[in-house]
Q: What sequence folds into this?
DNA sequence: TTAAATTATTACAAATATATAACTATTTAA
DNA sequence: TTAAATAGTTATATATTTGTAATAATTTAA
């Protein structure tokens, strides 16, 4: 029984993913020059305040060397900054600068615009339904993501947690 | 009012996307050697039966030359086949072979397994809620995607539809 | 205090994705 | 029938992402 539900959820989520990816990436590519991961890092930092390099890698499932690359780019544009941990000097926290927060807001509103043209064609009832359901999916996935925080599998450098 | 709803939906969807991407791509990468687009093409073909090259590009928002590359790969593995249109000899339909259908089923069950380990930690109630809500989101996005079928923006070769 | 583990970086190589331009074959329309 | 438009391909350059290995600095544990 639970088995079947899981299959059904998988089916739904696997249909949602490419469509969502398409809609967003299209908006992002059309209106900014940032690659997806850069946007996602900024999103993660917005929600978590600050994250370690390893934490960012875990959140996005990106190998650590790639995290360094992404952050280097964001640093160069002064969108994030590094903070040292007082207790453990190996750890570096990353957080958005004011400029970064502003930029991310802009990006989000660009995406909203991009969505608007599509969503505005939905009937009000459908939009309401989508709001409620996307809310529920979002909540469940965030919960899931926490349970699923297993680092990045293929990477020797950041082994699968435990 | 509708404005605010759209912002909220955008916010939700933009949080859903990276988490979903992470969970899926992790499962896919860990268990198959197919890149995301290959999986998505197979998914689109599963749902639509057959699609033209241009249609595939539109569905996934991938430039045409990249569609050719993806299909070449799938052809080489005998997972899809080309069909000529009788009426218009420029058009080539792509559809899954039996082998391709079988392979995609395998992939989906691998993804289900990957999801299972995560989902099984959710409480039954949460799972039910996720099933219903993912269903609704899926339905809305599919509808949205049809309205949003505007080809691939940055490409001169496959201009913005109409 | 030495060995092991952890955090982040550097350095590559390879795979995948994006962006353009030019081209063939075919159909549509003036 | 010629010109314009469409479907798909080829070719090429660049950007992004992934996969490994090795390294330095620091902390933890034996």
A:
């Amino acid at each position: 029984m639970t088995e079947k539900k899981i299959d059904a959820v998988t089916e739904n989520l696997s249909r949602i993913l490419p469509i969502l990816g398409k809609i967003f990436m299209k908006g992002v590519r059309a209106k900014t020059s940032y690659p997806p991961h850069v946007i996602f890092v900024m999103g993660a930092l917005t929600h978590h305040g600050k994250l370690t390099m390893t934490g960012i890698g875990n959140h996005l499932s990106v190998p650590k060397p790639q995290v360094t690359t992404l952050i280097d780019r964001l640093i160069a544009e002064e969108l994030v900054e590094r903070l040292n941990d007082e207790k453990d000097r190996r750890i570096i926290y990353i957080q958005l600068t004011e400029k970064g927060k502003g930029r991310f807001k802009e990006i989000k509103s660009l995406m909203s615009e991009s969505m608007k043209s599509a969503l505005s064609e939905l009937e009000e009832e459908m939009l309401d339904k989508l709001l409620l359901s996307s809310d529920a999916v979002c909540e469940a996935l965030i919960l899931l993501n926490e349970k699923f925080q297993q680092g990045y599998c293929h990477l020797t450098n950041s082994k699968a947690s435990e």
Notes: Chain A has one domain: 2-147. The first strand of chain A starts at residue 50 and ends at 52.
